[in-house]
Design goal:
Blueprint lengths: L1 H15 L4 H25 L1 H13 L4 H18 L2 H8 L32 H20 L3 H15 L14 H10 L9 H12 L10 H29 L8 H12 L13 H21 L3 H22 L4 H4 L8 H12 L4 E5 L4 H12 L6 E5 L3 H6 L7 H6 L2 E4 L2 E4 L1 H8 L9 H4 L2 H17 L19 H23 L21 E10 L5 E4 L10 H13 L2 H14 L8 E10 L11 E9 L9 E3 L3
Parallel strand pairs: 1-2
Antiparallel strand pairs: 1-3, 3-4, 5-6, 5-7, 7-8, 8-9
Helix pairs in contact: 1-2, 2-10, 4-6, 4-8, 5-6, 6-7, 7-8, 8-10, 9-16, 10-12, 10-22, 12-13
Length: 637
């Protein structure tokens, strides 16, 4: 602690006296290492208390509803994110434009060939078919039919569909969609809000039990790998900012130039709130962002700080979207995993429904038990208590007498205070409190619908038969997960978390499917390079060239692809790039030569309209008119 205090004082003195940048970065690194050592020392000294806190945090009974909501959201996000046409567009590019990402294997002498993926072999047509299949799987997964199988198939499909565009110049970090699908494939994510849960409820109802899956510690353990992966995503982004740039990343002018560079790169976008005009505000915001990224993983480890950290994280991404146009919506939706949805919805139900409702059903009727089991799957607000008409004690508590027994066995009853709804009206009453029936609630009051509903109910109720069950058997999915399922989760969780920690430790960003997420750990300059292309006809006349407008041409991945080609000055890839442009624009096929210029422009919004500060000819490529004629390439002067 003394060393920490001394280093903190040294940092303050360094900034107050404007010490050299290298010295400030060295002090910051020393301060980071001392803080880390202090935290580890505290953890060791209070090992028993830390272990007890983590045990409580990771083994607190969790309702399956949280995992079910996470399943629905992840399948929904994947359905929206996977656009087969966009993915097929990338796959249709010339093979020479591919730049395969790393696999995560270190570049060592004997295994260096395994460090990068080979060229992707999929055609545009194959990806269109695969994209449609995976989107169908996502719909089935949202409905919860074969939930684990759908998650496994979706993970395999997402590995290909999200991976293929990563082969072209830039890795966009949506890796978590594959990770979380693999975790869902190893979890009982279909125990609530699913067709699987309905099928399980029927099986239990056939044995006399209409209860649904209840809170259990295993559901909390299933979420631990998700929390760990999200913590790793943020931690290394913050760690590398401080390690590479020190506190200068946030304090000083650097963050203002970060804003300007992103605004210029996003099509000269200006936010409504010009935060760059308040230095104290954006410096505090930048410092807060770093502290949030580093501290997030420690907050999610403990139950009390988990939800507040999620709220701050959601605001963090919202601010990035507004100020920098950095949208990370696929990760923002994952924040549903930090909410105890069962606790939230039941609390909402208590506020909405002041008077309890009791639904009385015939426990000897197999159809009635299955119906109640199905309704309980979607009874998320907890506003209904289900009573077996054969339970004499429960009937006495409700003030029901022996004279009511025949009526209770003949029809479904919904009791609320002094009001009694019978038969079809009982279902209408339940529709006010059951999310599965709420969407059709207005229709139930229409006279034609009511007339048909009453008739159908009466026919089914009068034709049902008894199925007597003396002793209900334990519900299968109220038991802990099997050892095989927990072992699979352990293996998948350890591989994913350990792999991403290793990738973060070595700052391996250009990799798939494990990678360090963007760190933005550099000092941004006051200028930016811009590509300008001109074309020459047979007479030597020069004219500017603007590529045909396409959404993918406006993406950061395309800009990075073009930038990499220019840096390497690879004639084969330049020829492939130009063939892509020419295929989309018929007049370009008659061009005699192409010139690539690099314009250095100011990123300060006040100087966007100014002419380039510097212009340099990068490459001139004379396109051969005959296939046997060699191309002529003129290097820059």
């Amino acid at each position: 602690m003394i060393a920490l205090a001394l280093l903190s004082a040294g940092l303050a003195v360094a900034w107050s006296r404007e010490a050299d940048l290298a010295g400030r970065i060295t002090l910051t690194r020393a301060w980071m290492l001392v803080v880390l050592a202090a935290l580890l020392t505290l953890a060791v000294c209070h090992a028993r208390r830390v272990r007890a806190s983590l045990t409580v945090s990771f083994t607190t009974p969790q309702h399956p509803l949280t995992l079910a909501v996470f399943r629905i959201v992840m399948f929904g996000v994947l359905f929206v994110f996977i656009t087969p046409d966009r993915i097929a567009w990338w796959a249709a590019l010339p093979d020479a434009l591919q730049a395969p990402p790393g696999t995560g294997i270190p570049v060592w002498p004997l295994v260096w060939r395994l460090s990068f993926w080979p060229d992707q072999p999929f055609s545009a047509g194959q990806l269109l078919w695969l994209g449609d299949i995976v989107r169908i799987i996502c719909v089935v997964g949202m409905l919860g039919l074969g939930s684990r199988t759908c998650a496994l198939l979706a993970a395999a499909g997402a590995f290909v569909l999200i991976g293929v565009p990563q082969w072209y110049g830039k890795v966009d970090h949506h890796h978590h969609l594959v990770w979380f699908m693999l975790i869902l494939a190893c979890s009982r994510c279909g125990d609530a809000l699913s067709i699987d849960a309905i099928i399980h409820s029927w099986r239990r109802a056939d044995h006399g039990d209409t209860a649904t899956a209840q809170a259990h510690a295993s559901y909390c353990l299933l979420l631990v790998p998700v929390w760990g992966l999200m913590g790793a995503i943020y931690f290394f982004a913050g760690w590398w900012k401080l390690w590479t740039c020190g506190l200068d990343w946030a304090i000083g002018e650097n963050f203002r130039w970060i804003l300007y560079n992103h605004w210029h790169g996003a099509g000269r976008f200006l936010p409504v709130v010009r935060i760059d005009r308040w230095p104290t505000l954006y410096q505090l915001g930048a410092l807060g962002a770093v502290l949030f990224e580093i501290g997030f993983v420690f907050c999610v480890l403990f139950r009390r700080t988990r939800l507040p950290a999620a709220v701050v994280g959601f605001g963090f991404h919202l601010a990035n979207t507004i100020l920098l146009r950095i949208t990370f919506w696929t990760l923002q939706w994952c924040y549903v995993v930090f909410v105890d949805w069962h606790r939230l919805l039941t609390a909402l139900g208590r506020r909405l429904y002041r008077r309890p409702m009791h639904v009385v059903y015939d426990g000897h009727c197999k159809l009635c038990r299955r119906t109640i089991g199905t309704l309980r799957v979607f009874d998320l607000l907890g506003g209904i208590t289900y009573v077996n008409a054969l339970d004499d004690r429960a009937k006495r508590d409700l003030g029901l007498t022996a004279d009511d027994e025949q009526a209770l066995l003949r029809d479904m009853h919904a009791l609320r205070g002094g009001h009694r709804a019978v038969g079809y009206d009982a279902y209408v009453a339940m529709a006010w409190r059951n999310i599965a029936l709420m969407p059709i609630l207005p229709l139930l009051y229409l006279p034609p619908v009511r007339a048909v509903g009453v008739r159908i109910y009466r026919r089914i109720a009068d034709s049902r038969t008894c199925s007597i069950v003396d002793v209900p058997r334990p519900a299968a999915n109220n038991a802990p997960p099997s050892r095989a399922l927990m072992l699979a989760l352990l293996i998948v969780g350890v591989v994913l978390v350990a792999g991403n920690v290793l990738a973060g430790a070595v700052k391996l960003g250009y990799a798939w499917p494990l990678a360090c997420y963007p760190t933005f750990d550099s000092f941004y300059g006051q200028t930016s390079a811009r590509l300008r292309i001109t074309v020459l006809d047979a007479t030597g006349a020069q004219s500017p060239f603007e590529p045909a407008d396409h959404p993918n041409h406006r993406t950061s991945r395309w800009r990075q692809l073009v930038k990499n080609i220019l840096i390497n000055r690879d004639e084969a890839r330049l020829r492939a790039l130009w063939s892509h442009y020419a295929d989309r624009d018929e007049p370009l096929r008659d061009v005699a030569a192409v010139r690539f210029y690099e314009d250095v422009v100011a990123v300060d919004p006040g100087r966007w309209s100014a002419p380039p500060l510097d212009t340099r000819l990068l490459l001139e490529w004379r396109i051969p008119t005959d296939a046997n004629e060699p191309s002529q390439q003129r290097p820059p002067d």
